[in-house]
Amino acid sequence: MKSDLEIAQEVTLQPIALVAKNYGISEENLELYGKYKAKLSQSFCSAQEGKQKGKLILVTATNPTPLGEGKTTVSIGLNDALNRLGKKSIVALREPSLGPCFGVKGGAAGGGYAQVAPMEDINLHFTGDFHAITSANNLLAAVLDNHIHQGNALEINPKKILWKRCLDMNDRVLRNVIVGLGNQADGAMREDHFQITVASEIMAILCLAKDMKDLQERLDKIVVAYNKKGERVYAKDLECTGAMAVLLKDAMQPNLVQSLEGNLAIIHGGPFANIAHGCNSIRATKMGLALADFLVTEAGFGADLGAEKFFDIKCAAAGLTPSCAVIVTTLRTLKYYGGLPREEISKENREALEKGLENLEKHIENVKKFGVPAVVAVNRFATDTEGELSFLKDFCAQRGVRCAIMEAYGKGSEGGEELAKAVLETVEAGEVNFHTLQTPEQKISQKIELLAKEIYGADGVEYSNKAREELKKLEESCYSNLPICMAKTPYSLSDKPNLLGRPKNFRIEIRELSLSAGAGFVVCLAGDVMTMPGLPKEPAAKKIGFENEKIVGIF
Amino acid sequence: MKSDLEIAQEVTLQPIALVAKNYGISEENLELYGKYKAKLSQSFCSAQEGKQKGKLILVTATNPTPLGEGKTTVSIGLNDALNRLGKKSIVALREPSLGPCFGVKGGAAGGGYAQVAPMEDINLHFTGDFHAITSANNLLAAVLDNHIHQGNALEINPKKILWKRCLDMNDRVLRNVIVGLGNQADGAMREDHFQITVASEIMAILCLAKDMKDLQERLDKIVVAYNKKGERVYAKDLECTGAMAVLLKDAMQPNLVQSLEGNLAIIHGGPFANIAHGCNSIRATKMGLALADFLVTEAGFGADLGAEKFFDIKCAAAGLTPSCAVIVTTLRTLKYYGGLPREEISKENREALEKGLENLEKHIENVKKFGVPAVVAVNRFATDTEGELSFLKDFCAQRGVRCAIMEAYGKGSEGGEELAKAVLETVEAGEVNFHTLQTPEQKISQKIELLAKEIYGADGVEYSNKAREELKKLEESCYSNLPICMAKTPYSLSDKPNLLGRPKNFRIEIRELSLSAGAGFVVCLAGDVMTMPGLPKEPAAKKIGFENEKIVGIF
């Protein structure tokens, strides 16, 4: 069996300018980054404003498991298959983070014969967007600490600083640090925290900003601290948001690459899916919708988090209407939900499958609550039996949902045809009645309760004392109309990671609320959220290197 | 008077592929980064190995002052003027650092009509080289702390960790930090330090590495810590140097841009000039020497540090022979050395000028000690009088040294013709007898004494107890043959920043020695060296932003 990197390195890529030309983008509208990567120019992006005509296809999934469901692989394979069927389609994905690349996960550019390329570049620095975000994030932090050091005219309370530094690295010792040790000249001492770059509010802002003007306004609105009177201090007050916008100017432009089959992929932005909304940039999605008849995109985690945020935050902010949501799952995953230990999930087990299907059923119901028709994609593994597959198909048919077997990992676009046809039929049936669940009129507590009951299937919501106080403050503020962004475990529909399948009789516990005023949402923390991962005992970095002048170890 | 940015923005740049073509580089050998920046492909660089035929011109200076001498501007202007005179010439410069750009200094891409462009890009992320170095540096740090957290099989002594984290930012509170606070899962607590990226040993390594193989070997050799037995722990022991090399693969390729007059400039690497050698990469310099008849390059600080390191470290490592050294100075600077306060340096003052010339004289003598002929370049200011200029010219003529007035800042290449002609005459005279001062056979203490007496004009060397111990250890080690890299104040020939002119009767005090085994030198600290700058009360970042969709505030 070849590795993803080996498969990718065997393909002769087309110059990206040629790929772009097939979609009506002339070379003068590209900023090339080598031969196989490009950014769309700012003037081209501006010119596409309002031209969005394509159909928007969301790829989401059942709750993620350690087994891997292959959402990115399905997205790329579906796009290749739509092109194979003669449709003009583009896939829009998130940019991978360096941290996980050197940690456990390896790369994040699809798999098998459904990959985007050049995958080494995409997984490493790509076009430098994340580095630009790191720089802008840390410029704000440096200016803040410098402001305090130089006399603290804004009377920032050093115990109430919200803004954190960041690095695109899995580095657990930076979670909690003390900065400013040393002498008077070395600044004011305080506790600080580093996040991984994808958790920076600037990442969410970049992905939600419509244009440079919107970006600037969102940067200005970031709440960085409280002053000694307890009032909010904004990034704008520190007078460095102009420089931050300048640092982000290239990062704002969507990146073009190609799939191994030579179809266009836009890869742009990659916010966390817990404390942020987990989708690629609005600009990338809109660009795809302007340039093609179909735009396939994915959202982070399972549909309870990813699809909900895609609908309630991203589509709401961008005024987008999705045409169809593909829910990716695997037989192995369903049996795992059904209670089977990992060793047994490759064996046939109708009982476990049936029980696990409750999870899929809930996600189908959830997607329909937004007025979006669902298609189930079963990412096929070699051990899947025909009996189980047809059982799953019957299950979906009984619920009026199309279900397709997806084999793009092993077969490329040919293996994606069944899913592409199911998607096309669904879109042509036109059963869309899209609406968000969250609305600006709802109070924050109503939005939280709505998600808890409607999406997670909880009986209600519990608040910690801290959360209750923060809720009160926020509901009395000008931020009460913002959507909420739930940060809960992705592994369960509930807020308890070990409650698999379709849990019942539980309440969602909200520990903390925090404001991302620049991004434009209120983060609700239902559980511990790690915003700076650590490296495992054997980091993937150990396997990465050169062999015979070729990169090895990225997968 | 127009700002540098305004002048730069008025020029219509040529596509970089066209500029490169004039130097025999076809587009297939370029990795474009937008239309006006490119990297040379690895295969092209490899093919140039051994083809270096051009003459190497070093631009150095008298000791730097707060007034600015304009070394980069002179380098760019000289190159433009050589091209104007029909010579095929390329200029090789260091990449600017983001830290100073947002701090005091603004940009670093020349000035007036002698600039490289696009200066906004060059001053910001450019082609991402510094970000790649930051990533590689911090991957090593994360893997080191992870190693300790996961059981510390190498028995690293947490009190003897030498490797520091880095960021390309002026951020004083990161100079001294405690990392690893929190719980057991948050890693081991210890004191740590951030440097600015240009101070990372990886920056020096990248600039001294001949090729990817050499890079890998140098990364392997980095000493990151001591173990509990007091033995050195190397980066290789942490098994992440392959991943570091992969992160650095694009950063190893020289970057092409153009001057405002459309002549080729290679901008690549930018190590500190105190704890490192302060020159652009060996690869960039060699590339220029292979592609043109002249390669103009600069070294950091004044000739006592910059030129010495250029000769003893860079030329020695690369096997390069310089043909001529241009020593940049200004009348204002010379009068400042002569004891005039800043308010009076623009007025004629023969006495101060005469006294200040002692500094220039010493630098001329120093350059000659390496067997390299010197040319003095007087970077002209509007207040300079003809009387003073001819006094300076006579002074140089009496010492058999050509002297040229340089006006490229205000007039572009036309203003650089006098200097270009002086350089051409000097090169054609062929009075080169190049040899390094430092040699591998000398003991480390001999090398230190040699520089102290021969270059700085000191009576001798004093060692702190700490330095004496380190010296002993190093002289007994396999590292005793490495060149030394002096980290002393650039503002004086001595190690006391306030001793201007040509100080006498002083001894150099060595406080500390430290090994940069990957870079391949021993750093001698004669004084405090700041490797993480801070922001000033009014950071330049405050003025940077967009106005009418154009960047403003970078200068």
TrEMBL record, chains A, B:
Keywords: ATP-binding, Coiled coil, Ligase, Nucleotide-binding, One-carbon metabolism. Residues 343-370 form a coiled coil. It catalyses: (6S)-5,6,7,8-tetrahydrofolate + formate + ATP = (6R)-10-formyltetrahydrofolate + ADP + phosphate. GO terms for biological process: tetrahydrofolate interconversion. InterPro entries: Formate_THF_ligase, Formate_THF_ligase_CS, P-loop_NTPase. The keyword Repressor does not apply. ATP binds at residues 65-72. One of its GO terms (molecular function) is formate-tetrahydrofolate ligase activity. Signal peptide: none annotated. Pathway: One-carbon metabolism; tetrahydrofolate interconversion. SUPFAM superfamilies: P-loop containing nucleoside triphosphate hydrolases. Its EC number is 6.3.4.3. CDD domains: FTHFS. Pfam families: FTHFS. NCBIfam families: PRK13505.1. Belongs to the formate--tetrahydrofolate ligase family. This is Formate--tetrahydrofolate ligase. It comes from Oribacterium sinus F0268. The gene is fhs.
